Hints:
The complex is a heterodimer. Chain A is of the alpha/beta class. Chain A is built from 16 helices and 29 strands. In chain A, strands 11-18-12-13-14 form a 5-stranded parallel sheet. Chain B has helices spanning 25-33, 50-63, 75-87, 102-106, 113-131, 155-166, and strands spanning 8-13, 38-44, 67-72, 96-100, 140-143, 147-151, 170-174, 189-190, 195-196. In chain B, α1 runs parallel beside α5. The longest helix of chain B has 19 residues, at 113-131. Chain B is elongated and about 70 Å long. Chains A and B meet through α1, β1, β2, β3 and β8 of A and α3, α4, α5, β5 and β6 of B.
Amino acid sequence: MMDVGRHPNIKLLTYSKVESIKGYVGNFDVKVLKKARYVDETQCTACGDCAKVCPVVVPDEYQQGLSSRKAIYIPFPQAVPSASLIDMNSCLGTNPIACGKCAEKCDKKCIDYDAKDETIEFRVGTVIVATGMDVFDPVILEEYGYTKYENVVTSMEFERLLSAGGPSDGHFIRPTDRKRPKTVGFVQCVGSRCERIGKPYCSNICCMNTIKDTLLLKDHYPDIQAKVFYIDIRAFGKGFEDLFARSKEAGVQYIRGIPGEIAEDPKSRNLKVLVEDTTSNKIEEHEFDMMVLSVGVTPRFDMPEVQQLLTLSKTPDGFFMEAHPKLKPVDAPSTGIYFAGCAEAPKDVKDSVTQASAAAARAETLLSAGKVKLEAITSTLNTDLCRYCATCSRVCPYGAFTVDPKKKTISYIEALCKGCGTCAAECRFGALTMKHFTDEQIITQIDAHLAKDPQEKVVVFACNWCSYAGADTCGGARLQYPPNQRLIRTMCSGRVDEKFVLHAFKKGAPMVVVSGCHYVDCHYIDANRWTQKRVEKLWDKLERWGIRPERLLLEWISAAEGQRFQKTMQDIEELRKKVTQEEIEHTIKVLTEEEEKTKAKAKQTGGKAQKKS
Amino acid sequence: MPKDDLKIGVFVCECGTNIAGSVDVDSVVEEAKKIGGVVYSSKNRYMCSEPGQAEIKKAIAEEKLDRVIIAACSPRMHEPTFRECVASVGLNPYLVDMANIREQCSWVHMGNREAATTKAKDIMKAYIARARYLQPQEEREIPVEKATLVIGGGIAGMQSALDLADAGYQVYLVEKEPSLGGLMSKLAKTYPTMDCAI
Lengths: 613, 198
């Protein structure tokens, strides 16, 4: 921590929040809000005189609320920066009449009640997301009586009780009588591997953390009896099995079975559990002075904020999704953004450090090159065809277009284009062409797929980042589905032009699917909003023409949702079977007529325009 | 406008048994040969391997191929590989396309060889059709600002920041709490070394 604090190349912004990140790989413009500490951190010597005179006492977050701090405080002795701050929510007030004791006491005059939040702006080439995790709160698991029985503590609270810098100065005591417990029971998998509460995953660190805790206990107090209730002990890392063996040698008892309930003896405040030992199939009763809930790891509560800042995706367990689980485990799907630590998945210190160094190395690859190649897939504008309707400027998520319909001017900054293709799908005059995903390229793919036995095919448009990737995930997991679907990739579902869908129907497709990222996950900010609008309009149109709108489906499938992709394909096959040959022929007839009507109309208006000129 | 005087090369990957196990690769190769514009069609055990790529390069040079279709895994997996491969012999990387016959075909229709083979052919044909409309594209190169933003000052954020700062790059480390340290700073001791967390 000290090294970070004093490194000349690191600008440390604590008590700060990233407010916005704009731009793209190589050029991210960042805005950070640095909250006022009300204490000048460059002048404060962390003498602590201010805290001594502060009359306000509040629970200390660092000590898990097991002891208290003042309204002006240093978070913990080794804090970096080593400086006090005022918690303005509990401070009696900036008015010296109300209090003002700390400012009076401070010799260096570091305290300024009027300090203001500051906004800092800078530009970076790469971003590393190391936002960490939260610890599972076991209150919802009522059977364990956490907060109801004081001697039931979480593993985080246990850490503080065992720490030399903890609330009991390293003396191991239990909360009710402040006496040293003689028997301690540990319950594993609290908030992990539990479908019931939506935490089906293994939190990775709790087995080893408990093994460590038992060893610390036994080292300090060999007479304490410790028992661990577990489902499986996962001691899979380097040297971990040794620690597990040492814990057992030290006399810690491991019992395979999780207690159904913790009950308290109101007199002794001891805790009793009934548990089925699944190795002996016997019901056992145990009594402890204190119990520790080995709590799991959960995604941080404020993850959605970071997710939105950088348009990241999440895996079903709620942690950030990497670009590839095996080959790009550190990269985010968008170039120039990397993950370090538990933001991506639960991990221990060693794995966090390993991933952090990997993320730094990945970032350095770009930084040292000093330049990066961007995808060439962008939209191009043909101003001759433009009618200045300004649709493109309305739908472009990146503001690449500026149109003045009155003056009949359009400006387009191609460098801002990320290639979603929504503009090309929305432009009614053919003025915009999406490179590498042109109308002709996509229509020719539709034709090829429907050249033979179209009545048996389902045409699926899938966006590159989510649905197409979801189909890949489905394949990777070997999840089987009927072989009737034919997938056409676009970068974004926003690219799927109305005419592609109608063309597929006209060529005899019984079913058409448009699929993209979930609403908030769109890799082009909100381009899929236009997908939805377009499909809704199409449903109306189909209904008007007597074509069942149910034959066009809109599905949001994320890259992680292989199972959802499989299920969707299975369901669609059932729907496809219900589409009759007469229905398909009727559709072809209606759409051909409609196309001719449109052509005639265009000719007419074209003729009029010519006459006028 | 579509180009009709093209020389298209089709390379079908067996991917060991990953594709060949469910798809009749030979018949896919033969099917390609029947399509106008396709002047070269072959299979390889692993198209992405060195010999596989060498075959592509050789065919581009000898047959003067101007469009290349790789029927193999997902473009999300190996598109960069094959773009680099064709670029190394002077073909614009956007003139190669990947027909995904593994993740979206052989792996998901494992018990149905006939249907999987038909589908693989369809996928390949759609890309051959598309090849007529492919255009060379130029990639833009942009400068990278030599600085990094690290969000989070826990053990991971600190390690990343130090590594990059030591390498000489400017790092902005943003931490929400008043001090660095994150959750780890609350731990009494950490495994496997059983030493102090701070």
